[in-house]
Structures are given as structure tokens and as C-alpha cells.
Amino acid sequence: MISVNDFRTGLTIEVDGGLWRVMDFQHVKPGKGAAFVRSKLRNLRTGAVQEKTFRAGEKVAKAQIDNRKMQYLYANGDQHVFMDNESYDQIELPASSIEYELKFLKENMEVYIMMYQTETLGVELPNTVELVVTETEPGIKGDTASGGTKPAILETGLSVQVPFFVNEGDKLIINTTDSSYVSRA
Question: Taking every annotated instance into account, which residue ranges of this chain make up the domain Translation elongation factor P/YeiP central (predicted)?
């Protein structure tokens, strides 16, 4: 058991029979009444986001999530195959459970698979990934001074806004939390 006063971003807890990851939290001490913790939680099974308020000092169960390093191998129809780097065991995840993560996954990419006991919860991506631009309008000389952006389609099918100087074939570093351009690789 863990106190809600000890919440931190990324902590995984069990509440009402569900597995939740703390995305954001705020300790509130009103002038009148008891203190409480306002939190934003994401369900690891469904992906749903919920705001929940806890009384200060309330105890919740901490969920033990194991992150196993695996390599993304290939798509087999609607299933996506991952291989454990140590034991060479393979698991399949349905596309519906990793819909967001598929925008960043390339073959042979190493990721962490979140496991709760024997249940596979999903894929944990690195903070940034390196992807190649497959389609974008050509940059025009002199456009870089304005600081504007244009759409670009990357090798995984992800569409992001990039600066004018980015061309087809460029390798870009993309932030996986908000699908935004970071820099050229």
C-alpha cells in the first residue's frame, strides 16, 4: 500500500479493480476543509483517462508492473509480434491495444512491454524515436527565416508538422508523447 501523498508521475496503482498510471497530480490544501490530492489517471488496460480525487493520506495499492525489453519484429495481419531479447520468447499483441504506439514502431526497434503478473498491458515507447521523412513539400530557399511549418509524412505513416527546411529522406527525431518534431537526426 502507498499513500496518495507519495504520488509521482508514472506511478502505477490499483484502484477499483483497474490498473492506473498517474499522469498528473496536484496536492490541494483549501483554506477550509481537509486537504486532498487531485490526480489524472490513465487506465493501462483500456487507455481511458480519468480524473480522480483522493483524501490526503488515503492508501491505495501499488501495482507491480514489469517492463521486459523486447524487439518489435513484424505485423502478422492484425497481430504484432515482439520477441524477448534474452529468452527469445515471442508474444503477439493486437493492433487495437497498441494503436497509438504503432505510429512510432519500426521493425527491429527495441521497446519495453509492460507486464502485470502474466497479463500483457502494452508497449512503452522511448521518449523520442528516429524516423525518415517519406513525403513532404520541397523547402523553398529563404523560407527558414519565417519559422513556419509544413506537414510531413514519416515512414510509419505518422503525419507531423516540421520546419520548412526539412526535405524527403531526412531523418528526424520525434517526441513520442505528443507526436511533435524535435530536431533533425
Answer: 67-121
